[in-house]
Amino acid sequence: MCLQQTDNFVKVYIIAFCVLASSIFPALKVSAQDTLRINQKEAESLFLTQNLDLIAQKLSIRQAEAAIIQARLWPNPEFSLDEVNLWATRNQLSSGETIPPLFGNVGRNREFTAELSQLIETGGKRRKRIALESVSRDMAAEYFGELVRELKMQLRGGLFELAYQQAYVTELLAQDAVLARLVAAFEGQYSRGNVNKGELFRLRAVKLELAQQIVEIQKEIHGLQKDLTVLLHTPANAYLVFEAPDRPDTGPLATLSLDALTTTALANRPDARISILQQQWAQKKYDYEYAQRKPDVNVGINYDRGGNFLLNFFGFGVKFDVPVFNRNQGAILESKVGIEHAQVQNDQKSLQVQTEVTEAFRNLRKHLGVYQSLDPAYSDELGQVLESYTRQFVQRNVSMVEYLDFLEAVLANKRTILTALKDLRQSREALIYVTGSEIQ
After folding, report:
1. What stretches pass through the bilayer (predicted)?
2. Residues 243-253: tens digit of each pLDDT
3. Comparing C-alpha atoms, which of 150, 241, 163 is closest to residue 424?
4. What's the whole-model pTM score?
């Protein structure tokens, strides 16, 4: 009688298993209104148009352009009106000297002086200041490119990590659903006396451990969702699902040349170009400070009414500093040292770029070799074999120890396959990052 019940249970369980397995994946989806399914191209388009850090950095370029406009402006002329007597007393007029009005009765017995002057910069200071600000503008543009490079690396890394974690948690949830049905079936069989308590508790413990693992991965997914939401400036309640290609095209990766990649990096990386621009800025700064040795000249014309032996006196004048003590020696020396400092920094940056490209290239080759060694059908075959093991376990043809060991091995292999794919994608992105150029 007991054997009959067991056979009936097995038949019912296998049918239920096939029905429920088809419902696992739909159950994993988030409600449509909160889910944002996005591919890499769409994510990057959203990132370039909506990321607040990029918008702020674009404004820095406009600020630098405004500084060039300001540098092009000439100094304003200066006007002064002095020595105006607002009244004249009888005692002041008792000498008999009077001043005729300017027109009508306006300005009678009124004395004043007026002066108009203009600063003239010597030594090409204005031109050198414009050149200095132009380099600053070019640096602001490169800083924008560097920010794009940094944030794009974060974005792509986050998307590929999200794809990995979501794919792995899907595998775990599928196995969790299978274990849930196995536990329910074993509880029914335990109540009938067909299995012992130790087997039931062992199965429950495995399911509990798997559930805890799922929770930890989902917490990591939530952290990735937060970071990507900030990068893409999407609604805070949106749940991102990254739709990555199942298998990347590895053909172009195998033909990459280290020398060509290094040359590309030195020419294209924004931080390498910034280093060169810093050298140019240091030279322009030196030129500007050296021009400060020559004093600027103030030329002016003044008018004196009634303050001299001439009633209407017009005079011309020139004013400038006499460079006896201060010839801008300290600033010139500082800017000269700045040129040497910028040269050393550029040499250091060049070496850094070369070593980073070499490291990223080697890592990519290593991960590419691991990924290419995997059989594309292996993951599907693992699922099929696990399904078969589950049926054998339910039919008691496989012991619990054997089944759980195999389940653990399958999950570990699934994770290894997903990790190999993630590592290949991220090592490719790392090479793109260090070269500053897309890899076709």
Report:
1. 12-32
2. 987 778 888 89
3. 163
4. 0.80
